[in-house]
Amino acid sequence: MNKKIKRYFLIIMFLSTSIVISSQTTINNPFGLVYGDAISENVPGKVNIHPVTYKLNGIEISANIYTPANYNTSKNYPAVVVAHPNGGIKEQVAGLYAQRLAELGYITIAADASYQGASGGEPRNIDKPAFRIEDIRGMADYITHYSGVDANRVGLLGICGGGGYSLKAAQTDKRFKAVATLSMFNSGEVRRNGFMNSGLSTIQERLKQATEARAQEVAGGKVLYASNTEITDEMADKMPFDLYREGHYYYNRTHAHPNSTFRYTMSSLLDLMEFDASTNMDLINQPLLMMAGSKSDTYYMTDSAFKLATGTKNKELFLIPGATHIQTYYVPEYVNQAVNKLSEFLGKYL
In sequence order, what are the beta bridge partners of 316? Predict the structure, then answer.
């Protein structure tokens, strides 16, 4: 790897996933949704959205429930829990897929992670894997008691970082009868080693920073944040990787939302850097579908985890031709392919 590319890698690790929303950002959707063809009103006989809140370990969680057309509480419906990307929120890609799955007849839930989005928790933007995994379990807690849900037919879809956390949740939580990921991102591996192992030489330095940040927090000092620098379009355009370049435009421009930010407490790195979504993959005995764009520069993470999933007799790797990581979030052609595959997979196992 040449020095220029490596320098970009290191800049990306600390800065490029930062999201600074322009003060001119306006959201016209009454539910705050920013994805294409989002529900703007609840119409009888069609897919409806139901904002809800619930408590999880003392923190108020903000979630959206999507119910199918002609929803009837006296019927039994399969359900799907949808986990959002790192820095993402329920109003973006997680909401898009939750709505599309509701169109297929599933009751779905997409919730903001604790300490993030519209959910509670202080300090803001803690990003610890154990919390994200618990958030997924919390969504299962809530949706399995929702009117009309068949608790024996609950699936799980994790997107990007939510995909990595979904793999971990499914390893032990057997309420999930089928597990799917889209553009899975192994947060711990990347925070520890850098994207494509670009940060191996700085691991101890970054752990020292995280340790000092935690010590400062517990002493009552200022909470320090990683990925907290504004990225301009010009900076993004020079980034050598689709994930970060396209991610900038998705999160900062085309699908921006004031609740969405990739900054996270520096002290969270103590937990992130010891985490690896691909460990204990043999514990997944449920049917597993892992989807990724054929041009995704994060595909190596999906490939690695998929190969380690030796505990299930039913697993499938599905590549979306021509798609990059971020394009699976919103490009209709690629979203349709992913949804069609999910329809086949969930229809078979739920």
Answer: 289
Please check whether residue 267 is in contact with residue 209, taking contact to mean a CB–CB distance below 8 angstroms: no
- The average pLDDT across 83-90 equals 97
What CA–CA distance (Å, rounded) separates 244 from 16? 6
Query: Using DSSP, how many helices (H) and how many strands (E) does the chain show?
Result: 11, 10
Among 3.30.420.40, 3.40.50.1820, 3.90.550.10, 1.10.357.10, what is the CATH number of 3-349?
Answer: 3.40.50.1820
For the entire predicted model, the pTM comes to: 0.93
Q: Check whether 19 has a pLDDT greater than 80.
A: no
- CB proximity list for 336: less than 8 A, separation 6 or greater: none
Cα 350 from Cα 345, distance rounded (Å): 8
Side-chain half-sphere exposure of 89, counting CA atoms within 13 A:
25
The residue extents of the domains of the chain are 3-349
What is the per-residue pLDDT for 228?
83
For residue 144, which phi and psi values (nearest 5 degrees)?
-70, -15
| Largest interatomic CA distance in the chain | 63
